[in-house]
Amino acid sequence: MGSFHLSQRQNPRFYRSKGSAVAVKREVLEVPKIPRATLKEAQAALLEYLHWTRSIPFMDAENMSKNSPHFLRNLLEKVNIVKDVRSSMARFLRYHPINEFEPFFESLGLKPWEYTPLLPRNLMFLSDDSLFFENYRVLCQFGIERNKIGRIYKKAIQVFQLESGALPLKLQAYQELGLSHSFMVKIIVCSPCVLIGDVDMKFIKVLEILRSMGFDHAWIQEHLADQDSYNWGLILRVLNIFSEMFCSNELVRLISQHPGLLFEGSGYATISLIGFLLKFGHPIDQISSMFLQFPKIQVQQFVSNLIKCFVFFHEIEMEVDEIAKLVCSYTVLLGSCRLKKTNSLLSNLNVGKKRLCKYIQENPQELSKWVIGLRIVPLPDSGEDIESKRLKMKFLLDLGYGENPNMMNKAFKVFRGRGGELQERFDSIVNAGLDKADVSEMVTVSPQILNQSKTVIQSKIDILVNELGYPLSSLVSFPSFLSYTTQRVRLRMAMYNWLKDHKKAEPDLALSTIVACSDKIFLNQYVNHHPSGPRVWQDLKAELSMDK
């Protein structure tokens, strides 16, 4: 609301290197200080030029000369100082007319990276756009500070394109509705779109509803921010929703305690929150109760916290119905907790996903201790953890790690998973048809192969034997095959078979040679040997990505 993208309106030239507004922003983040004496002389020269040479009214010319430091700095860099700054600059301006819109917009409170996309195309003098300057003068005479008019231009450029005499009539129409002068000044700065088209009846309706609740214009003015824009239709929608959810006394108390429910993002975060909770099956009466318990926190932050909690639950693989129960039963708690990242919590709590899910379901209030800024205390070992460690120790002893304590400690860190799970994964490889001694040797060489589920291991063995046609015994010499993704294996083998069919690869390459090398080596040593190799490689990659 009130944001316009005018990429076609570019500055034709004038004291700026070519580049995007982002580049300009980077260049002027910090303006080097100009010596005070130099600054005063430069400002005086610019004032004389704007007022006496260009006939810009004195007040506006003075404002432009005193409140455009970025423009002045760039201009001084172009001037060859001979005797003094003032005369040298006056001589330069005599032969090098400036784009007056640049210091003008900067004096209205806009930074160069803000006004660069808004500069009128093919215009350089303010007098070239008399309609723009007339509407600017109307806003000044109405009492709006010059350094805030830039925000109005940025939010609603159409206000400056109104026909001659139209803007005063619009201002008068609002005042005739009983809106005070100071209130309208605040509204125009925050929400200049009320000046576009006819009187904004949604805006007027919002004022009427709030006034009927006892909220006067001064209260509204207090809770509006100059830097924000407001969609009064959206605010009206929130008020209508709330009027169906609460009795009048509850609604008055809610809005007085949490005005951000209406004004933050024009109530968009509030509507998003209601929609989010409805999707989880949250009854309306419970949503109403949640709002009456709403914490002293910004609505947008509350919604962000709630969504991050939902993402956290999803990442620890909590069941959907359990997530719904937590969201519905502990909405205020979740919205108040700014949780740390999932990996950080798992590591600091020293717990697995399965146990963490169960722990949260049984102790949801513990979430408030896992927020950013607090030290995380690891969860105590449970009976299941002790049994898991016992089984893991037994599994590692059976593999022969008991002889060396240091190797045992390293193995505990390398092998991820509960003791019973590790044994189950090991057995799945043995049951595929390999000798137990061979599998023990495979795991010693490539312990990471057991850091994946039994299902994943079985699927990779199936691909090796039934899809690629390799004997199961290939795993004994190349156990790390089970560590690579199925997509990588299929892509490499498909490309190798294509090269082999086109006589560009040896027919008996080892499986490890094809799969284990990096993409860069595989491309250089094999794919690029055929002119069509890179294209086929990309086609196969795209095909496998689609299948995935």
TrEMBL record:
Keyword set includes Transit peptide: yes
Gene Ontology biological process terms from the UniProt entry: DNA-templated transcription termination
One Pfam family matching this protein: mTERF
Record bears the keyword Cell division: no
Signal peptide: none
Keywords: Transcription, Transcription regulation, Transcription termination, Transit peptide
SMART domains: Mterf
GO molecular function: nucleic acid binding
PANTHER family membership: CGI-12 PROTEIN-RELATED (PTHR13068), TRANSCRIPTION TERMINATION FACTOR FAMILY PROTEIN (PTHR13068:SF38)
Family named by the database record: Belongs to the mTERF family.
Protein's name in the database: Transcription termination factor MTEF18, mitochondrial-like
Organism: Gossypium laxum
